[in-house]
Amino acid sequence: MDVVIDTNVILSALQSSLGYSFKLISMLPEQVFRMNISLPLVLEYEAQLKKHLSPAIFSLQDIDDFVDYICRIGKKTPVYYLWRPFLKDPFDDHVLELALASQSSYIITFNKKDYSGIGFYGITAVTPGEFLSILEERR
Hints:
Blueprint lengths: L1 E4 L1 H9 L4 H7 L7 E4 L1 H14 L7 H14 L1 E2 L16 H10 L3 E3 L15 E3 L1 H11 L1
Parallel strand pairs: 1-2, 1-4, 2-3, 4-5
Helix pairs in contact: 1-2, 3-4
């Protein structure tokens, strides 16, 4: 199952080990689902993690190592066409474009309302908790 994980989920997973985001990211090595990445999304991950994670807990090297890990395990998907503008927030359009290019079924995000209308393309925006429930139903 192909998915795109929004930056807010990655950030949440690294800020707390108690929630669904952490559980979701912890499942990456198991390859239960395939995480799709693109250059714009990886650059966004890196910038937002360096901006928002506490330097007392995460060094810049820690963040670089995590982003490198994502680059190793993620399915690199080139985006050859742009669907912009489609979403209310133009900063989210590249996430939708990646989901389309990778034929992902889900965008995992905490901001589902930002992705309204994507059902037209056969993509569903779900929270980490909702996605984990979907995985559980398929087992």
